[in-house]
Amino acid sequence: MSQAISSEPSLSNEAETSLESVNTVHPRLSLALSEVLSITPPLWPLQEYVAVNPFLGLTENSFLEARHLLREVRDCELLPSLNFYRSLVAGQKISQADIRFAWDHCCDAHPDLFADFSFAELIARLEPEDDASREQDRDYYTVAELVDHQLYGDWTNHIVNDISRYCAAHYDEGQAAWPSPWKDLSLYAAWRHSAQVSRRMEQLGIPSFRDWARQLPTSPAAAIAQSLSVLQVPHEHWRSFLLCEMFSIGGWASFVKQQSKQPGAAASQKDDLLGLLAIRLAYDAALYQAQDAEFSLPFKTPQPVCSDRHVLSRYLLMVAHETSFRKEICDQLTTAKTQPTGRKSAQLVFCIDVRSEGIRRQLEAVSDEVETFGFAGFFGMPFEYIRLGESNGEPQCPVLLSPSFQVNEALRGGTREKSRQFAHRLGFRKAGRKIRKAFQTSAVACFSFVESIGLWYGGKLLTDSLGLNRSASQASGGDGLLLSFRARTGPDVDAEGANRLSLARKTELATGLLRNLGLTRDFAKIVAFCGHSCSVSNNPYKSALDCGACGGRSGQPNARVAASILNDPEVRTQLGQNGIAIPDDTWFVPAVHNTTIEQIQFFDDQNCPEDHSADLAQLKTWAQEASQLRLEERARQNGTTVNAIVRGSGDWSEIRAEWGLAGNAAFIAAPRSRTQNSDLKGRAFLHSYDAAQDPDGKVLELIMTAPLIVAHWINLQYFASTVDNRAFGSGNKTIHNVVGQIGVLQGNGGDLMTGLPWQSLHDGQNLQHQPLRLLAVIETSRAATQQIIDRHPMLQDLFNNGWMSLVVLEGEQLYRKNSAGEWCAEDRTPPGLESILPHSTAAHSSSSPGAST
Fold it and tell me: Which GO terms describe its molecular function (predicted)?
């Protein structure tokens, strides 16, 4: 096919051209590229994997508009199927009153779509016979997809696999034995070098591909302009066509975006996402030129948001499902429990993670002398933790924050010389593991390795398979040390040198923690900061089960730093001068909640004053009782045994050691007295908040712009992975292959997977996560809440465009923010449970939320 020449201004082929400079030469292309890059969500690597809203760049649009935009350019679904909702209606999880409310809501929020959609028609569509959808196919396809469709080829897989192999080599973080020789270059520049020598595309059927790569501009933006010219894409279709190309390698695009935007990224990485798009387009442009002259790209006239009745019915039923859940939650919050007066024996501060709800409830049930709080799991301590024997540290804070100070790990109770010896020991272990890995992966030595060591590994494989492996408490940490041995080390906030925290900085951190937590008086004798972690084996997504507020790591270091600072007598003196008087007999202790086996482990016992030893021992007893009760509760819920749960934490073949944050659906910021009477079934993020202690609303603003946003990200990742696991999840966990220690592939090729594996959402028979958009409930005034929303366009988008719902509890009255941005009184009436379908319908219903009807 002859190459088409664009009449538009061209970009220089000689120099690297950033997106900003593109704007001066080709503003229309610059605008399209900016929108494409902003819509692409980020993806963090496995070692610090955190949940991300996959629709992050689309929240300025309504939910239905975002669905329409995505379905124009990729195969995906944002709405559960009609069969899924039929099963809920048949099971009396959604009432006719809920559906009536949802119908009214949708008519008000989207009058252009629902104006002529009658309630009777909706009810009729709940019958199983009405499964036909007349929604149009995608409007945009990649060249490879079109060629595959017309010629029954496999070019899409060939191109995606080629890009995937290349990105894996370029971004490899130590897994590959032979690193890429162009790793120091930008992604696009390195690919051009590789593509000029690789014969793979030519062998597959694209002639002169190396010559094509050689003549491409050195600037990724210029290369994109050239490819668009070759493909003859009209201007009005640029954005959508480029989105289609980007989402064809959406996993790698998300990862590259995160890498290029992270603090400290090299200058050569800043345009890597643009470079990836240029690479993807270059393949399609080369394939396009290899086709017959009659081949061309079809471009349709853009269509309005889908008004197909089948689609609108599913959206309306999703709103009804959320209405039912909102009534259920709000009904449990309207009566606050009267707190007994007097000083508590123990107070425990947990992460707001939904897995904390169960253990908090059991602790309070074990003893009235225990009070619990919910707070972000990094406890307001955003630091970089430098472990013994390491020169670089790990950020112990949310990924949206940057560490503000450094903390070194030290040997507890040891001299500097002992710490130095311990660090050398760790260094030898690390070097030994590196040598062993090199021996394993060497092209020649790997054969002798198997012959000489294989039998020993066979014995280990046998003991692990028979469940004779070590318990989770004795499992090895990431550095090869037993966790019991690692407990001898800990953060040292008083270390000499540049990293030592000043008294002023310690006081600032302590003040912020206590004021934001709302714990400024009535301190118990023992106050525990309880971070959380998990104990799973052979799970690439382990960091997704650890503390997201700690960057996908254990919250143990943060708890220990917080306790150490608050036990400092000088800090307490300064706090007293700032109006926070901590009793002399209050002692802060660090702890960690192992969410897999529900165990609470306390640290730094040796520092506890002798006159507090009995109090700490009593707290440990209560914690053990609560842990056992929580394990028994989980065993009943999951139809298993306590022993099976504990054994599964160390079983390398266990694919469901714990459910993580499955089930999350609500975020509640209120005093604990509002939720203490309720069994929220591990579905709510619980953040302690007392509006009476926050007259200027600064704490509320922090909660609404940080923890609430993180919870929203988590919620939508679980939502998307449940509704369409193929597009937004990571598929089958049993065939995951870790690539470059970055992420996972499904099998031995394809795009980088992004969301959650299916086994983290479904037990093989039933869903463990219900696809509901997050409900935020805050006990405060409407005026205070509205002022914060007015200051933050991000919050306006989330609440007004249907990405999250908001209810305020003012006094004893609930107010809901409606689609028009107005406050309306919320009906407290418990949800009705009457079924509106014949009983026979249940037999045709499915519990799967999949997009298929």
Answer: zinc ion binding
